[in-house]
Specification:
By secondary structure, the chain is of the alpha/beta class. It has eleven helices and nine strands. The strands form three sheets. It has a five-stranded parallel sheet, with helices on both faces. The N terminus is likely disordered. Keywords: Disulfide bond, Signal.
């Protein structure tokens, strides 16, 4: 996939020319013409953001209602796509939407608010930058939490159908439930690369000149965390969070590499989980201390992701 545009390469050149004689602009142009030249260069960056709630949702009181189906999609004005667009001077088409799966990037669907069009339709031949945050809703982070033995009632028809045979003890029922959930999640993870392939192929077809940056998922809770939230989880639940996060990010990174995209994950993300102090958290469990949504990035996490995306973008356009 092509990731460079002559218009983008011209941007750092234009910026460097600002330091030249204040009485002349590029190629001897007047200062007003110089400013117009720089403005045109900045406007050449046409940015489309694709993805789920890890890209759309940030501050709980900063929802952006200027886009279609904004209330349903819960797009925040301080999410990383908006910060990136402001930092690099790009025009932004924010197509991200909470709850989105890989299928929702490619296909439209109906909600109580109306039809949500496929995110891929936002791309055009002159799109120059695409960010992609997707895959988290295709797998399951919380399946084991539904395997509490108190919820697995002996003799329940649904339980018997899900777990054939007579399960004599609570421990057996819980173990069978977790094993079934693990098998389903393993299947979902195994299917994810093909689904990501379809998205990258669609991006290539619609925006063949675009640079594509894929972001990983900031971890919420990891093995070894010791806050009240982590301590309330069973060892199997905590391990599930760790394994699912690792599998998801590994798959996203591998798919990005195979399609010539850039994978981005902020450094030290493991040191900024929901178990750190409120000021240091990049993700949150309940959002109460960080003005964020439960189980999602905090405004600080979105800002950190934006900085990582901008750094990757600028390093590849020679800024």
């Amino acid at each position: 996939m092509k990731r460079f545009l002559s218009a983008l390469v011209a941007l750092p050149l234009a910026v460097s020319l600002v330091a030249c004689d204040s009485q002349s602009g590029p190629y001897g142009a007047e200062p007003s013409a110089q400013r117009s030249h720089l403005k045109r260069a900045a406007n050449a960056v046409k940015y489309v953001a694709l993805g789920d709630s890890f890209a759309s949702m940030s501050g709980a009181d900063s929802l952006d209602d200027s886009t279609p189906r904004a209330e349903f999609c819960m797009r925040s004005a301080d999410s990383y796509p908006h910060i990136v667009a402001a930092q690099i001077g790009a025009s932004l088409n924010d197509a991200t939407c909470q709850g989105a799966t890989t299928a929702d990037v490619l296909e439209s669907y109906d909600t109580d608010e109306g039809r949500v069009f496929s995110q891929i339709e936002s791309l055009t031949p002159d799109t120059t930058l695409v960010t992609l945050t997707i895959g988290g809703n295709d797998v399951s982070f919380g399946a084991p939490s539904g395997c509490d033995p108190r919820d697995l009632i002996a003799g329940d028809p649904e339980v018997n159908e899900a777990f054939p045979g007579i399960l004599q003890t609570d421990a057996e029922r819980e173990a069978a439930c977790i094993a079934d959930a693990q098998a389903a999640n393993d299947e979902a993870v195994a299917e994810l690369p093909d689904k990501l392939d379809e998205i990258y192929q669609a991006i290539e077809q619609r925006s063949p000149k675009a640079m594509v940056i894929a972001t990983g998922y900031l971890p919420v809770i990891l093995e070894g965390d010791t806050c009240d939230y982590a301590n309330a989880l069973s060892p199997s639940d905590l391990q599930w969070f760790q394994d699912t996060t690792d599998q998801l990010n590994s798959t996203v990174e591998q798919s990005a590499s195979e399609h010539g995209a850039i994978y981005v994950m902020p450094n030290d993300a493991a040191q900024h989980t929901a178990c750190t102090s409120a000021d240091d958290r990049w993700t949150s469990i309940d959002g109460s201390d960080t003005n964020s949504f439960p189980m999602h990035p905090t405004p600080a996490g979105q800002k950190t992701m934006a900085d990582a995306v901008v750094q990757a973008y600028e390093s590849h356009v020679g800024a």
